[in-house]
Structures are given as C-alpha cells and as structure tokens.
Write a structure and sequence with these properties.
The protein is about 20% helix and about 30% strand. By secondary structure, the protein is of the alpha+beta class. It has 2 domains: about 5-330, Alpha-Beta Barrel (TIM Barrel); about 360-610, Distorted Sandwich (Beta-galactosidase, Chain A, domain 5).
C-alpha cells in the first residue's frame, strides 16, 4: 500500500524583502511601513484561504516579526482551532524593528550568525513565541539550519520534533543565478525527508546515538535533474519558482502537476513511501507582480497548485499532514539504514533521460543514464564531517557537504583538451580503440532483492572498426554497507574469441564549489602481486600499476574519507594516477581482459578515516 504525504507550510512574513523593495522605491528604508505590513498580511490570509478551500491543512510557521502582529497571531489561532493547522516557528523573517533594536544586526540568515548569537536569537524567538501562544512550537525551520544550531535547539527545547533544514542543491548555481548575491551554499544534502546526524545536518543519522532528535525536510521538493543541472531556485513545488523559470504555457503550469506526480512515483523505489512539500511566504505574490508575471497569474498559479493537492487528497491519493504530524509518521517503522532512492526522469524537456539518486547514512550518489550509468555525484556521508558555518567558523557561508565526484563543478567526462574531470565510469578497449561508457546513452529499471537495491541498465551497443559488442551494467547496493557492487558484462559479441580490456575507474577530488582545493596530503595506495605501493599527492603526474590487484584506494584526510575499489576476479590489474595542477584530480582503476561473454565485477566503497 503506497502512501503519499504532503506538508504545506505558510509563513506570515511581515516584511518580505521583495514587497519591501518595491514599496520603498525612492524612499528611505522603513521596515515598519504600514502598506508593506498590510499587503503581506493580506497575501498570507489569501494563501491560507486557498489551502483551506481545497480541504488542506497547513503548518503556519510564525516569523519573529509576525509575533508582534496582533492580526497575524489572531489568524494563526483561529486557523489552528477551525482547521487544525499547526502553529510552528521559523527563523526566516527575523528582520523587523524589534530585531534591530535587540540585536543591532541586518543579517537575514540564522545560520550565518556566530554560535553565541544563534543561541541568543533562538531563545528570543522561542520565548516570544511562548509569551504569545502559551506553548512552545513543535516544528521550526529556515532555508538552512546547521547541526550545531539544531543540537542546541533540541537540547534547550526538546519538544521540537521537525524542521525545514536545508534547500536541495542551492550552491554555486543558485549564487550565480541570483546575480552573485546569494551568499549561501547548501549543496550535498538529501532531497527527501531524513533523520539528521548530530555531526552534520546534511547526513542521515547512522543510529540512535547519532540521531539529532528531529525529522528534517528540505525547503521545497525539487526536480532532481533540472536542479542538479541548473538553478536551484526555478524547478520545484512552488508555483512562483516555476514562473520565475518560465516553465509555463500561457497562464498554465502543467510542470507543477508533473513534478508532484514524479514525487508520487518515488513510492515504487521506497517501499510505498513518497513525500512532497511546499514552503512559501507572502513575498512571492506581490500585488505589483514578479518575474514578468502579474498578480493575477501569480494568484492563479497558486490556486492551481493547491487545487491539484486538494484533488489528490479527495481521490484518496494524498494525505495532508502538519509538519509535526509528519515527523511522528516518518519515524514509525523507519530503520536508520533505509535509503532514499529515486529513478528520476526528465520532466522539464520531455527527453528520455534518467538519473538514479541514492542516499543513506553512508553516502549519496547519482548515476546518469545519459552517460551510460556514469556516477556524476558522490558525497561521503560516512565521514560525518563536522563543518559549522557562520561568523567565527572556517566555512562561514559555505554550508555544503563536500563531494568526491561532482561532474558539473569539476568537469565530468568531457574536458576541453587536457586532464580529466570527476566521474565514475568504465572504458572498453579493443586493440587500439577505446570507448568510454559515458558516451553511450541508455535507460534503467529498479528492483529490490531483500535488502539490496539493484539498478539494471539496458544493454548498450559498441561498434569498433571490425567488431560489435553489447554490454550491460548492473549496480547493486546493500543496505547499510556503504559499498556499491558494479557488474559490467558482455551479453553478446560478433567475435567470441576477441579480447577486450575493461577499465573500471573513478576520477575524483574533493570540494564544495568549482574551485580546486589543495590535494597535498592525499595518499594514493595500491596492493597487488608486486606488493603495496603508495605516494603522497604532489601534482607530479605519477602512476603505479600492479598485477593481481587486491585494492586501490585514496585517503583524503581533509574530509576524513577513504575511497577504494576492489575486485575478487583473478588476473585483474590495478592502478592509481596522480594529477597535476591544471587537472587537480586523482584516478583509481581496475582493468581486466574479458573474452567472449565474460564480466568484470568491482566494488566501490567509501569509509571514514580519522
């Protein structure tokens, strides 16, 4: 039996930056301007009505500024009693005169304050909430909440059970799309609800001891393909985001329905569970319009989006829960090791492209079927990196979880004329010809065998000058192991006696943006028949080959991570290759001569090192 859960979160921001900027054009700043407050409150009331007209309950996350509005408080209380809406708290919408008077800061983002100030703000917001409503909230949120902040909140206010904790893939792409003014980098987290680790909010908890104590949800349900490739602020379950990306047809936004349906389909890969969320404030529905859309279109798009949720609920195909209710539901019968899987298809351009996304407490990765199943993203959650952000920390604005592979930021398969990009793939060599599976488009289907998730790719045909072969790739991930079994097999060949060399490889580095990090101190190690060899990375283009390889690995102390490749097939060779400054990567590989209908099986594993 499949369950599709929906949470709708509204926040009554009293001073949305978009409305404030428009209303204040040509005037001195006045964040208490009555016209701004009235319009914001009116939009919040409209959004609530649209949800209720469609039979949907909401979670009202009160901003700090709204706690000083008698009207906003009255609406929240009324809707809580009348409709069963939840009253929660958000750290968005901090800025108001009361905040300026108390904290003397124009900072917008809770996660960018110093830890000392974060604690002061949390206490002020929650205590003011209690004075207003007579109880503490059980849900909270922001665009991002680092683990240090959430750990403090859970310790001081243990009734908190849920939070909007990050925004999926809002890193350099979102920064550039906001005219280089969005100084927040949030790449590397889950796209669906998760129980976060005490160490890092992006990482799912490994066990009860690692459990931070809340259920986290992302800010909006994003398009896992379009957002990975393009701006994170366009493609998701927010009608006005869709209009911003101009993914509309006249006054219609069928893309919204498509993305909701895509999330519903994830039940096929997650044992019947699927989820979708919307998290909006009033600033997007400005009476003067936004993104070349007038108010009538903004209003209609929101009505249409809510109408689709309402239709699904009436048909028995969706369950609307408040955020705290959802947290309770999510924790029932939820082993920590259970992964989130998504075989995502292209709904933006309508192509046949597919990507497979996987996340569990040990790793997150993505396979791109347009590149023969190449791995285009890999994050070593197993390291559970402690990376606080904000004033007084090393990262400050960069809250992203580091990658080992990220093909958009670090070149991927094709580079212009020199070096390599980060990718995990396989090359097939015949005589003096070579074909990388990255150049072979295919499709995939998903199955489960016990606690093993299996992604099976449709065979690809490779034509060499005088011979043709058909190759199939299979990826098997056993729950809780942090390891991927990769099978490359020849299904057919026009010459059974021909010898093919398979080269299973990963080219990797580490980082959070496009810019290279210093790889000094990375250790490359290989073990085989000729013994054990290792080097410390020094950008000197060194490489080492061994026969009868047992293991080849890279230890990256900067991110407490070991990545290794192994095989149990005899007579396989292995190698590592050091990069150079113009191509600051490293490559690990295992090679095997395959004849007839043979196969190469390798394992890719990520582990924590200290």
């Amino acid at each position: 039996m499949s369950e599709f859960y929906v949470t709708i979160i509204h926040r009554p921001e009293m001073v949305p930056e978009y409305i404030q900027n428009e209303q204040g054009n040509g005037r001195n700043e006045d964040i208490a301007r009555k016209s701004v407050l009235l319009e914001s409150l009116d939009i919040f009331r409209t959004q609530q009505q649209i949800a209720h007209d469609n039979g949907l309950r909401t979670t009202i996350q009160m901003t700090y500024a709204s706690l000083f509005s008698q009207d906003a408080v009255a609406i929240a209380k009324e809707h809580h009693e009348k409709y069963g809406d939840e009253i929660g708290s958000t750290f968005l919408g901090l800025q108001c005169q009361q905040f300026l008077d108390r904290f003397k800061s124009r900072e917008l983002a809770i996660w960018l304050f110093s830890m000392e100030d974060k604690k002061r703000i949390v206490n002020e917001v929650f205590d003011t909430f209690f004075k207003t409503f007579g109880f503490y909230p059980t849900s909270t949120g922001s665009y991002y909440m680092d683990a240090e902040l959430v750990n403090y909140i859970k310790e001081k206010y243990p009734m908190i059970k849920a939070a909007v904790a990050t925004c999926w893939e809002e890193g350099p792409k979102a920064y550039r799309n906001a005219n280089n003014s969005w100084y927040t980098f949030l790449d590397g987290g889950p796209w669906n609800p998760w129980i976060p680790s005490k160490c890092n909010i992006h990482c799912p908890a490994s066990d009860e001891e690692d459990d931070i104590g809340i259920v986290a949800v992302p800010h909006l349900s994003r398009d896992l393909m379009a957002v990975f490739d393009g701006p994170g602020s366009y493609y998701g379950t927010h009608p006005q985001n869709i209009l911003r990306g101009m993914v509309c047809e006249d006054s219609e936004i069928p893309y919204f329905n498509n993305i909701v349906d895509q999330y519903r389909s994830l039940a096929k890969y997650n044992r019947g569970f699927s989820y979708n969320m919307m998290f909006v404030g009033p600033g997007w529905m400005s009476k003067s319009g936004r993104w070349e859309a007038d108010y009538d279109l903004l209003l209609k798009s929101y009505q249409d989006g809510m109408a689709y949720y309402g239709q699904l609920k009436r048909e028995g195909n969706a369950t609307d829960l408040t955020l705290s209710e959802f947290a309770d539901s999510y924790r029932k019968d939820r082993p920590y090791t259970r992964p989130e899987c998504a075989l995502w298809k292209d709904i933006l351009y309508g192509s046949k492209r597919q990507q497979f996304w996987y996340a569990d407490p040990l790793m997150r990765f993505c396979l791109d079927m347009n590149q023969g199943g190449a791995m285009i993203d890999l994050r070593p959650y197993t390291a559970k990196l402690i990376r606080p952000c904000g004033v007084g920390t090393k990262q400050l604005q960069d809250a992203s979880y580091p990658y080992l592979v990220q093909s958009n930021y670090r070149a991927g398969y094709f580079t212009h004329y020199a070096g390599e990009g980060t990718i995990k793939s396989c090359k097939i060599m015949y005589k003096d010809e070579e074909v990388d599976l990255c150049s072979c488009r295919t499709s995939a289907f998903f199955t489960e065998i016990g606690d093993i998730r299996v992604v099976t790719l449709e065979p690809v045909e490779i034509e060499f000058s005088d011979i043709t072969i058909h190759i199939q790739s299979i990826f098997r991930i056993k729950e809780g192991e942090g390891e991927i079994e990769i099978i490359r097999k020849i299904l057919d060949t026009t010459e059974l006696d021909a010898n093919f060399k398979f080269d299973e490889y990963i080219t990797a580095c580490y980082g959070t943006t496009e810019y290279p990090e210093d790889l000094s101190g990375v250790k490359l190690v290989i073990e085989g028949a000729s013994g054990k060899h290792s080097i410390d990375y020094a950008y000197r283009c060194r490489q080492e080959y061994v026969t009868d390889v047992e293991q080849v690995e890279a230890v990256i102390p900067q991110i407490n991570t070991r990545v290794c490749m192994t095989t149990d097939i005899l007579d396989a060779d292995g190698y590592y290759r050091e990069g150079f400054a113009f191509s600051p990567m490293f490559t690990l590989g295992i090679q095997k001569i395959i004849k007839g209908k043979g196969e190469l099986i390798t394992w890719l594993k990520v582990e924590r090192v200290d």
